[in-house]
Amino acid sequence: MTREGMPSKALMVRLWPFLVVLGLLVLVTYPTWEGIVLRWFKLDESYSHGFLLVAVALFITARVSRQHPVTPGFAPLWVIPFIICLAVYWVGGLIRLQALQHLVLVPLMFSACVTLMGWRQAKWFLIPPGLVFLTLPVWDFLAWTLQLITVAINKFLLGFFSIDFEVEGVFVYLIGVGTFEVAHGCSGLRYLLVGQALVLIYGELYLSRWRSRLTLFFLGVAFALVANWIRVFVIIYMGYETNMQSSLIEDHDNFGWWVFAGTLVPLYFLARKLEKRDDDIVSGETVSASPEQSIGGNATLAVALIVVLGLGAWISLPEQRSLVSVKPEIYALDASEQFAPIFKPGLEGWRPIIRHPDRVYAQTMFDRQQARDGSGVSTTYYLGAFTYEFQRPRAELIQYSNRLYDADYWIPENFFDVENELGIQVQGVTLKHRVSGQRVHLGYSYLVQGQWETDQWRAKLAQISGFFSGRDDASLLISGVACDACDVPITLGRFVEATFPLVLKQIDREVLKKGG
After folding, report:
1. Rg (CA), the chain
2. Helices and strands, number each (H, E), in the chain
3. Which of 211, 236, 399, 499 has the fewest CB atoms below 10 angstroms from its CB?
4. Distance between CA 203 and CA 393 in Å, rounded?
5. pLDDT tens, 427-480?
6. What angle do CA 410, 45, 439 make, to 5 degrees?
């Protein structure tokens, strides 16, 4: 390498504190970043733009660094938010709550950098961490709210047409035609994230005033949401007009991106107007050159302090890189004297999708007494138990990859409560096969560190309150029934009463064995 091609000494003096600090924090938070990057590789999810946005963030950082050269120093006041972020990350690792670690990851790294720069220099670098934050899976928490908003908007729009429909939760029932589920993928989360990224980048490159940037940002959010509402409405309306035969029903993803692209046209006309207004305001002002603001203090002292705090948190963190179970252990469970196994992998073609559990029991059954009475095996049952000894990256009970059913083949028709004498909350759902019309009825519940929940987000939050229970395990228990003519809630309730205690006994035995 020639002398001209080597980094200058002045550049390395400016860079080394940031390289050391960010390198250390990446090491401390590596298991969390690893899980996030794996989500970026899933091209059919909402975060496949991760690699692109990180590359854009690096480009903008380099661009801003040339425009506003940074002189590293020590801003001791910013050590406080850094310590708070580090403590929150440590608590998230302690209670095995990845969502908390994801939420604080970017503020943790940004506060460390501000400690080296001070706010007057750091304010020029707000957009790159903002772009990286759009790649983190914390945005999934908005999906349910966005789904409900989308349903409400479409209920309002459908009211202008002579369409006989009913709405229940996230389901739109077209009477005599079919049912649409405004599922996670229909929430508009993907369009929202991409829309925010585009307006943030445009604002950084072409807008000079923060007021204009904020205006464009809110316009981008609004247009992204409107694009999704239009997409869902058109799909539902075309399903009604064509008696569910429209190709848009199957190819709704591509259609959605075309609608989103269409909304970008008026958005960028408005962005161009904001850009011209900023140019006129700036050209009318007298701009005087001023030296870049820097801070005093010893950057070496700041780096040493951050390194000590980071290493201390890393050493005290519980193990986060435990291996996932490629082949889970099987519960040694006798389903009871009443039920006998049928050696099938699922119930009428249905089976849950659960990734990397530590222990599993999944069995299809029939009622022995029913067979003795000569009524055959017209009613079949399913019992499933999926347990994680403790929750960790890629081995969590509540994660995007874990699903009660495959939405490509099954659609929920009805929800109901499964009453039982055990005092356990059990949520019931009837699933209908999209092609065959076959129905299966399920009752499920989450047992998270000794606490019963039927809602996914409550089960996620149970990891916090469950920390004080002395347990780390989390399980999904599923009962299922397929029958031609039976009282589904009562049948499921009796099946739960007969089988769940046996499963709980096995789970408790493994927990005690691990604790002892």
Report:
1. 28
2. 15, 12
3. 211
4. 35
5. 999 998 888 889 999 999 999 988 899 988 788 888 777 667 778 889 999 999
6. 5
